User: What shape does this take?
Amino acid sequence: MSPVGLGVFVLNGARKVYWHEHSQRELAEIIPKLDAVIVPTGSTEIHGPHLGVGNDIVSASRVCEETAKMMYPRVLVVRAVWVGHAPHNMCARFPGTITLTPETYMRVLYEVADSLTKHGVKRIVFVNGHGGNVAPNILACAKIREELHSEHGVEIEVGALSYWDVIPTQVWDEVLEVGEKKADPIGHGGEAETSILMAIAPQMVRTDYMKPPDPRPHGFPHDMMSRLWRAWYQDEYNPDGNSDDPRFASARKGEKLLDAAVKGTVAALEELIKYKPVQGHQYPTNEKRTSSGF
Assistant: This one.
């Protein structure tokens, strides 16, 4: 093994982009030179009868891996958690979902970030592959910055994105045939997600179990959900556990979506890396607080 570039090491000619692949000595050299650490978040949950329950975290992890390769050696991937916040997929008809409460899930993200900052990491981004994690990820980021900065004086940049949000609309329009391009292009276990898994983990796809989605209306319309969020369960909307037709999926479509997701993630990270606030933030001091009487 020999040092390459900025102190990042390779083994047998392969670039090591995962935190856990490195020794403590290697990390001591690498961490001060890192621009960012990216943490994939996803879920272990049902995605219809044809997809492996690890779809979300497998997809997010692959986006992170390819992103780190493109940004090598400035970015490392930290694999921290394979489950997420998915109570809506805890349905008697669909075995397989493992979920955390939002409090537990956010606490895990906080403690991962806390550990990373103690080692000197200055910038963390959660790259998400599961819709149920979107709100908890944002709240966790706010908690991480607020508490680590205000209570411990840690200078930390932290953010989150979902990989489907960085795929340009043009790509969705070109790739999808039946997916809901405007309301929910990634869907759930349908054309898009099945295509991505076909491209990166074909062993997790059962084409012999694919069938058209239930023809009945899904109930609460997407245009209304953009204005009023309703607490829901997967079996209420999608009796088979997937939202759109996976029979239109292909590995080629998955490759195009993955490529766009990686390029979009790289672009987002580069923007965060070069971002400079207009001015520094200062918290009110204790002297300015008055007694509340409690």
Notes: The domain at 2-277 is CATH 3.40.50.10310 (Rossmann fold). The chain has one domain: 2-277. Strands lie at 2-4, 8-11, 14-15, 36-41, 75-77, 123-128, 157-162. Residues 1-8 have pLDDT under 50 and may be disordered.
